[in-house]
Amino acid sequence: MPPGGLPSSADMAGKARIEITLGELAERLGGELTGPPERVIRGANSLAEAGPDELAFLANVRYERFMPTTRAGAVLVSGDYDGAGESLIRAQDPYFAFREAMVLLYGFRRHAFEGVDASARIDPSAELGERVSVAQFATVSAGAKVGSGTVIYPGVYVGPGCRVGADCVLYPNVVLYDGVILGERVIIHACTVVGEDGFGYATHDGRHEKIPQAGWVEMADDVEIGACCTIDRATLGGTIIGEGTKFSNLVAIGHGTRVGRACLFVAQAGVAGSTTIGDYCALAGQSGVVGHINLGDNVRVGAKAGVINDVESGQEVFGQPAMPRVQARRVYSMLPQLPELRRQVRALEAELERIKLRLDGKDK
């Protein structure tokens, strides 16, 4: 089965699939071990919660305070770490090394079904590749094509003419409207809707007249979309999600938007229609981007920021409206002082008025 889920149902209870000694684990991770190589690791946990047979990691200095008291059997740390710790595995990138350890210990979700369930509705004109699994009450519509190894969970709707690549996973109640195109290894979590009509209306004589949405949605390889997201089809052409881009939950993408490669969208981020977002961008939680603008490559948008203008490559923007980070910090550092500044301005205005009255009296 393709990678990309959470641990399997058995592993969700915290039980790893394998046991491994620290010596072997360090070797598999390419790290340098300080500690007893014979110690057995049976799982992974946080620094605060890990037990003597569990692996933890330190990738953020804010959590270094847990190091003197952690009970973890070993901790993954950076190569230059010089703090407390009895059993350490030094790695160039401890967070990625922890990811590799999680894959080794737990693996990815093992889907609980195989084959095509008798209650699934597969149109005679649909094409299913080898090893496709379709759960109960799922629908694969006329003319749709599903690539080999793809897994379709209960209640999924694959609309007419959709193209789903190999080794994709569509979790329960995902809806793909007609003509949606998915690359390979695309993962879409529960209740997400892809290819619904864009928010397109022409206002005439006070009425909002619907514009037919004749475009489509296309996702490249290795995209992952969280739960309850919505991605509008374009009015004309395509709404495009680039290779390796990842969405959290409750993300909304407007019609005709183009998102580049390897972007990250945190929960409740929203992008209006006909916007272009470059490669390697990150939108933090509850951030919003208006339509018909361009964000360059490597742009970072802060939480709750409202982007209303083009953003050049490499910029970090924050605030409402969004502005460069340095400017935003200066602006928002002043906010707590506004009541006192207002009081001072009123006092100065009153003093100026008194001075003006005295001068007027002397003129007379």
Quick structural summary:
With 364 residues, the protein is an alpha/beta fold. It folds into 2 domains: 88 residues, MurE/MurF, N-terminal domain (Udp-n-acetylmuramoylalanyl-d-glutamate--2,6- Diaminopimelate Ligase, Chain: A, domain 1), CATH 3.40.1390; 206 residues, UDP N-Acetylglucosamine Acyltransferase, domain 1, CATH 2.160.10. Helices cover 15% and strands 27% of the residues.
Overview of this structure, please?
The protein is an alpha/beta fold and 364 residues long. It folds into 2 domains: 18-105, 3-Layer(aba) Sandwich (Udp-n-acetylmuramoylalanyl-d-glutamate--2,6- Diaminopimelate Ligase, Chain: A, domain 1); 121-326, Hexapeptide repeat proteins (UDP N-Acetylglucosamine Acyltransferase, domain 1). Helix content is 15%, strand content 27%. It is built from 4 helices and 39 strands. The protein has a 10-stranded parallel sheet with strand order 8-11-14-17-20-25-28-31-34-37, with no helix packed on it. It has a 9-stranded parallel sheet with strand order 9-12-15-18-23-26-29-32-35, with no helix packed on it. The chain has a 6-stranded mixed sheet with strand order 27-30-33-36-38-39, with helices on one face. A hairpin with a 4-residue loop joins strand 38 (316-318) and strand 39. The longest helix has 26 residues, at 338-363. The radius of gyration is 27 Å and the shape is flat. Residues 1-12 have low confidence and may be disordered.
CATH fold call of the largest domain: UDP N-Acetylglucosamine Acyltransferase, domain 1
Looking at CATH, the homologous superfamily of the largest domain is: Hexapeptide repeat proteins
Radius of gyration: 27 Å
The major sheet is characterized as: 10 strands, parallel
The CATH architecture of the largest domain can be named as 3 Solenoid
**What is the structural class?**
alpha/beta
Tell me the overall shape: flat
Q: If strands are numbered along the chain, what order do they take across the biggest sheet?
A: 8-11-14-17-20-25-28-31-34-37
N-C termini distance: 95 Å
List how many beta strands DSSP finds: 39
How many domains? The number is: 2
